[in-house]
Amino acid sequence: MNKHEILKKYFGYDSFRESQETLIDSILAGRDTLGIMPTGAGKSLCYQIPALMMEGISLVVSPLISLMKDQVGSLNQAGIHAAYLNSSLTAAQYYKALSLAREGRYPIIYVAPERLVTDAFLDFALHVKIAMVAVDEAHCVSQWGQDFRPSYLKIMDFIDRLPNRPIISAFTATATQEVREDIIDILQLREPLVVTTGFNRGNLYFGVMAPKDRYQAVKNYLELHKSESGILYCLTRKTVEEVCSRLIQDGFSVTRYHAGLGDEERRRNQDDFIYDRVPIIVATNAFGMGIDKSNVRFVLHFGMPKNLEAYYQEAGRAGRDGEPAECILYYSGQDVITNQFFIDHNSDNQELDELTRAIVQERDRERLKKMTFYCFTNDCLRDYILRYFGEYGAGYCGNCSNCLTQFETVDVTESARALAGCVKASRQRYGTTVIVDTVHGANTAKIRSYRMDENPYYGRLAKTPVHRLRKVLNELQMKGYLTVTNDEYAIVKLTEKSAELLGPEGENGPQILMKLAKEKEPATAAGSSKKKRRGIAAFAGNGEFTEKEESLFEKLRALRAEIAREAQIPPYIVFSDKTLTHMCLVKPKTKAELLSVSGVGEFKYEKYGEQFLRCIAENMFT
Ligand code: ADP
Ligand code: MG
C-alpha cells in the first residue's frame, strides 16, 4: 500500500496536511528528519505511516504513559497492531508483549525512554530489525525546554548499542532556536531534513479580558458553554481549590488537577476529563502534558502564565481536532506580582551557580514582560504571538478579541502627564494601583495611609474612570515612558523617556495617542457572549448547522459516548468532533458515503459504521 492508501484506509483521511507529506517522504528516503509543528498539526501520522511502510519495527519514544496509551489506543481502533512498553504493565504483560513483538506482530512499538537500555529490552532490540526510532515530544532532551527529561538522554546510548543505526526522526511543538539545536545535537541527527510549519492555529480564537470580578466572568462563560469540554488553568494550587469548589457550589460539573494531589486522585480526575465523564477540569500547569484529547473546546486562563511559551502551549490544547475553539485569558494586575514571586523563588534553579541563576532570572523576567504586554496590547493577539515566535503575522486575524473590538484613537496626553507626574511627586515608591487611585482621587484607607491624598496629582483626573487610567498606564509601559520593577512589589518607576512627559505643558512634549475600545464595546466579549457554531467552514464554506443537524450532532455524540463507555476508550478515539460534524453535513446513507467522511477508515467502518448510519437515518430521513 502506498502512503495515500494507508491514510485513507486506516485513518480515514483524504489528503495530507501541509508538510506531513514532506516529512513522510524524507523518512521513507532514509533520511533523519525533524518536524517542528504546532499542537494538533498531525505529527503522529508523520512517523506512523512510514512505520507501516518500512521493513522492520519502528520504536516510538514518548515521555508519558498516558500519551502512549492514547496513541496505541487510537492505532488499535484504526486496525493497526501497536503496543506500548512501560511501567504500567505487569511483568507478565511486559514479557508477553515483548515475545509478540519478537514474532513481528507490531510494526509500531511505543517505549518509555528509561526502558530502552534495560537488559530485557536490549535483548529484544538486538535480535530484530529496528527500522526507525521516532522521538515524540523531542524537546524533552533539552534542558532549555520546560519539560526536560533526563531519561531522554538514554536514547542515544540505546541507538549506539544497535548493530545498525536506524533512521531517527524527531517531533516537537517547541519552536525556540535553543531547543531545536539541542534536539539535533543531542540526538545526533545526521544531516536531518528540518521542517518547521507555521505556528498559527487558525481555528483558535484568542481573547484577553480584565474583568472586575474574574470568577463571575469565568462563570458566565461556562454557563454559555455547557456540554462543551474545556480546561481552566489557575496559577496556584490554592486558586485551583477555591475556583473548583465555587464552581461545584454553583452547580457545575468540574474536577481538579494539581501536583499537590495524590497520584490516584490525579489519575482518576484526568481520566474523568478525558473520557468526557466530567466536562471541565480546573488545573495548574501541572496538567496537560500528554493530553491528546482532541475535543477540548476552550482553554480559559484564570490568571496570566509566566511566559508566552507556556501560554501558547496550554492554550494550544484547545481544538486539536481543527474545529473552532476558544482561548481566553482573564488577566489581573496581581498576576504580574504572583509571577515575579515565582521567578524570585524558583526552586528549579537551586543547583545553578549564582551567575547562571541571575541570567536565568533575567531571561524569565524579560519573558514575563512580553507576556504582560500580550495582556496590554490592543493590536491583533495572534499577530503578537506569532511575532514572539519569530513569524510574521498578517496584522489582522479577525478571530481575536482585539480584531473584533471597535477601537478609536484617543489623545491621552493629559492622563499620561498626570500619571508620570504622580509617580515623580511620590518619589517612585508605589505600585500601579496606588498611582492610578491617586490620580483618580480614590478615598481609600490605603491612599490615606500613604498620604497620597496630599499628592499634588490627587484627584487630578477624577472624571476619568480607573480602568481607563490603568490602560493608559499600561500603554506608557509598552511605549517605555514608565516602567515597573521586576520584583514582587512591581513599583512604577520613571525612565529616561519620562522626562519628555514631565516638561512644562505646551512645550514640544510628545502627544500620546492610543487605541481605546469604543465605550459601548459590543464585540469585546465575542468569545463569550455569542456562541459560535461548529467549524463547518472547513467542509462547506461558511455554513451553519440547521436545527436538525444540530440535534443530529447531539445524537451522534451520545452514540459515540455509549460506544466509548462499552469499549472503555475515550470518546474522541472512536470519532473526533470533526468527524461527527462532517457526518452531519454529508448525512451519509450508504457505506461509500460514510467512508467519504473525514476520519472514517475501513476498519472503523466495520466496527461502528452501521450504528452510525442507522442513527443518521433515524434522525434525518424519517
Ligand atoms: P500533534 O501530535 O501534532 O499535536 P496529532 O498527531 O495528535 O497532532 O493529530 C491531531 C489530530 O489531527 C488528530 O485527531 C489526527 O487524527 C488529525 N489529523 C492528522 N493528520 C490529518 C490529516 N491529514 N487530515 C485530517 N486530520 C488529520
Ligand atoms: Mg503529538
Structure description:
This protein is of the alpha/beta class. It folds into four domains: 3-196, Rossmann fold (3-Layer(aba) Sandwich), CATH 3.40.50; 204-388, P-loop containing nucleotide triphosphate hydrolases (Rossmann fold), CATH 3.40.50; 407-517, Winged helix-like DNA-binding domain superfamily/Winged helix DNA-binding domain (Arc Repressor Mutant, subunit A), CATH 1.10.10; 533-620, Orthogonal Bundle (DNA polymerase, domain 1), CATH 1.10.150.80. α7 (154-161) links the parallel β5 and β6. α13 runs antiparallel to α14 and α17 crosses α19 (466-478). It starts with a helix and ends with a helix. Adenosine-5'-diphosphate binds at residues 13, 16-17, 20, 37, 39-45, 292, 294, 320-321, 576, 598.
Give the strand content: 5-15%
CATH architecture of the largest domain: 3-Layer(aba) Sandwich
Largest sheet: 7 strands, parallel
Number of helices: 26
**Count of DSSP E strands?**
17
Q: Can you tell me the residue ranges where pLDDT is under 50 for at least 5 consecutive residues? A: 521-532
Write down the Rg. 27 Å
List the bound ligands.
adenosine-5'-diphosphate, magnesium ion
Total count of domains: 4
User: What separation lies between the terminal Cα atoms?
Assistant: 40 Å
Strands of the biggest beta sheet: in what spatial order?
3-4-2-5-6-1-7
Shape descriptor reads globular
The CATH superfamily of the largest domain is known as P-loop containing nucleotide triphosphate hydrolases
What is the fold named in CATH at topology level of the largest domain? Rossmann fold
- As a percent range, the share of helical residues equals 40-55%
Q: How confident is the prediction overall: mean pLDDT?
A: 90
Sheet/helix structural class: alpha/beta
